[in-house]
Amino acid sequence: MLRYIKRFLIAGIMEDGRRYVSEKGTPQGGVISPILSNIYLHYGLDRWFDQVFRHQCNGRARLIRYADDFVVTFQQEGDARLFRQALEERLSQFGLSLAEEKTKVVEFGPYAVRRARARGEKAGTFDFLGFTHYCGRSRDGKGFRMKRKTIAKRFTAKLHLFKEWLKANRHRPVRELMPIVAMKLRDHYAYYGVTDNSKSIDRFAYEVRKLLFKWLNRRGKRGSINWDKFNHILKLFLLPIPRIRVNMF
């Protein structure tokens, strides 16, 4: 295992068809990155939090981590402030540091909503694993419920990637193009199709159709495809319907 890990780390990276030697770190997107994150942070963060820091807290505390992204919840604000300071000291012992632009202490939950409303503000939000988590209400409107939606920047980035792919592949036959579009939409819904995020995936489907019409219309003379022809294509090559795939409750 150690020999395989070493080979991953010295393999270098490929950019625009050229290989570059990497002298430190792991390649972004490489399969070795989350493996090493889990091994390293299991000892550097998880066990320390569970066996040491959590027992110093005055209220309940919980750590949720995925690879090198994590959220820590505290019942008491004082514990959260103390953890921020202790975390920097702990990570420095392992040669690690926090990404300051992604790190914040935010008041969250039913009490946070009441306090924010009293100040004439909205309760804070936080981003985790591609979703913006925000304070909401249950279906009956009586209880608190944490809700989530696609991060705005992630939504824009996904659309931009689809646009660039479509721009480069618009000349492919429709019978080849549309199944790939359907696959890309299914992948998007599979990840982002979670409870409370229906508006976001509906909008994504709408924007994808607009881009399809735009770039298919540029395959020949401008205006070669009208909406009737485009709708006929959509009937022949059905695209997956945006729907919630994962029920969080």
Mind sketching the topology for me?
Layout: H1 2-10, E1 13-15, E2 18-20, H2 32-51, E3 61-66, E4 69-74, H3 77-92, H4 110-118, E5 126-128, E6 131-137, E7 144-150, H5 152-169, H6 174-192, H7 198-216, H8 227-236
Antiparallel strand pairs: 1-2, 3-4, 5-6, 6-7
For this entry, give a set of tags.
249 residues; alpha+beta; three-stranded antiparallel beta sheet; two-stranded antiparallel ribbon; 8 helices; 48% helix; flat
How would you portray this structure in words?
Helix 5 (152-169) runs parallel beside helix 7. By secondary structure, the protein is of the alpha+beta class. It contains eight helices and seven strands, in the order H-E-E-H-E-E-H-H-E-E-E-H-H-H-H. A three-stranded antiparallel beta sheet has the order 5-6-7. A two-stranded antiparallel ribbon has the order 1-2. The protein has a two-stranded antiparallel ribbon with strand order 3-4. The longest helix is centred in the first third of the chain and has 20 residues, at 32-51. It has helices at 2-10, 32-51, 77-92, 110-118, 152-169, 174-192, 198-216, 227-236, and strands spanning 13-15, 18-20, 61-66, 69-74, 126-128, 131-137, 144-150. The model has no long low-confidence stretch (mean pLDDT 90).
Structural class, from secondary structure content?
alpha+beta
End-to-end span in angstroms? 39 Å
What is the strand content? 5-15%
Order of helices and strands: HEEHEEHHEEEHHHH
Mind telling me the C-alpha Rg? 23 Å
Q: Please outline the major beta sheet.
A: 3 strands, antiparallel
Number of helices: 8
Mean pLDDT: 90
The count of DSSP E runs of length 2 or more, i.e. the number of strands, is 7
Low-confidence stretches: none
Oligomeric organization of the protein chains: single chain
Helix content: 40-55%
